[in-house]
Input
Amino acid sequence: MSKTALILRHLAFEDLGSFAPVLEEEGYRFIHVEAGIDVLPDPLAADLVVVLGGPIGVNDDHAYPSMRTERDWLAPRLAARRPTLGICLGAQLMAAALGARVAPMPLKEIGFSALTLTASGGNSPLSHLSDIPVLHWHGEAFDIPDGANNLAGTAACTTQAFAMGANILGLQFHPEAGERPAFERWLIGHSVELADAGIDPAGLRHDAETHGRSLKRAGQSMLQAWLRDLPA
Output
């Protein structure tokens, strides 16, 4: 029997990326849910939930009520320690649902740079990302939730990943994205944000050419290791 993976997406081009073939190879059947549009199903039903990134903030409830809906939806799943993976906004939503603070950073972190793994991170699936420049694209950051381990950081953001046991993993960065030519969708889709931040897309495009392929391999290895560590 195939396992079910509920994929909660906030933006069309911020999809599973390089993670999709790994999930398929590991026997998962996708249930796609569009944030703010589709009705969220039973939070405990799917074998795995993956909450993807997006350009809005966890605390923007007044403008985007779906943020509170998603936090409330995640809370019972996380309390039950059901397998859940969050990427960027997804990880921030998970952290907030677990009671941790999510707040703006002094400066946005956009670009490719390597992580500094903590001792816990070095003994986790994130070890596959050691010395690999990963894609960062965020202006907010989470505190580490009570009971979770901090796995990695960068100079700009000391809380880049957290784990709560084997089943809960939140990643502030993007290990699923950054390979050309698909990365061009990010540059086009986030053109206003890049202009506001004074970031030249040509530099990001060059870095994607340089690092995208190695990030794809490392990210897929990390995900496969995490999936295979999940309790049967």
Notes: The chain is about 35% helix and 25% strand. The CA atoms of residues 12 and 34 lie 9 Å apart. The first helix runs from residue 19 to 25. Strands lie at 3-9, 28-34, 48-51, 84-87, 102-113, 116-117, 134-142, 149-153, 161-164, 168-171.
